[in-house]
Amino acid sequence: MKGSITMCYYLYLFSDEEFQESKFDKDNPGLFVLNVTHDGHRGAIAWKNEKFAYYIGGYQGCGCGWCLTEFDDEIERAQKIADRDALKRFISCAQSTSFRFISGYEGSQGEKVVAINELKIDEFLSLNLDSEDPVEYLVRK
After folding, report:
1. How far apart are CA 89 and CA 64, in angstroms?
2. Is residue 129 included in any domain, yes or no?
3. What's the number of domains the chain is made of?
4. Which residues of the chain form beta strands (DSSP E)?
5. CA angle 5, 29, 93 (to 5 degrees)
6. What pTM value is reported for the model?
7. Looking at the domain assignment, is residue 3 inside a domain?
């Protein structure tokens, strides 16, 4: 991957709506939301057209949980599904009816987006977000 040795995936949410942040809690791992507009995610900020940019992480403390694999054991798969359910609840509480997400492999932040997909939230949450290149998703409730 272009200059990166980090082996993680990311998921960013871009919105004009401000969301409450949450931190990763290693004692109670799960969905967390970080405002990256002022948090050093410079590459991701290059994609920002909206007022706010958020990093969406999961039970592993990063974005790797958004990648479903055939190697997931039952416990890991259940944790990944729980994070997806938590993201759906998070989105359902929002005022907005559409959202822009970008997922990809660490180190590709700010690079050209390779595809734009328009989906409903359930379709989006059923995807395996494992692209090395940045992929944009326009998601509707």
Report:
1. 20
2. yes
3. 1
4. 9-15, 32-35, 52-57, 98-105, 115-120, 135-140
5. 105
6. 0.91
7. no
What percentage of the chain exceeds 70 in pLDDT?
94
- The rounded distance, in Å, linking the Cα atoms of 75 and 58 is 14
Specify if 2 maps to a domain.
no
Domain assignment present for 1: no
Residue among 97, 126, 109, 122 at smallest CA distance from 136: 109
pLDDT digits 0-9 by tens, 103-141: 999 889 999 999 999 999 999 999 999 999 999 999 999
Query: Domain range spanning residue 94?
Result: 9-140
Q: For residue 76, give both structure tokens.
A: 């890991």
What pLDDT was estimated at residue 37? 74
Provide the greatest CA pair distance for the chain: 39
Using CA atoms, how far apart are residues 79 and 66, in angstroms rounded to an integer? 10
Edge-first strand order for the sheet with 135-140 is: 32-35, 52-57, 9-15, 98-105, 135-140, 115-120
Q: What are the distances in angstroms from CA 78 to CA 21, 30, 51, 55, 84?
A: 24, 11, 33, 22, 10
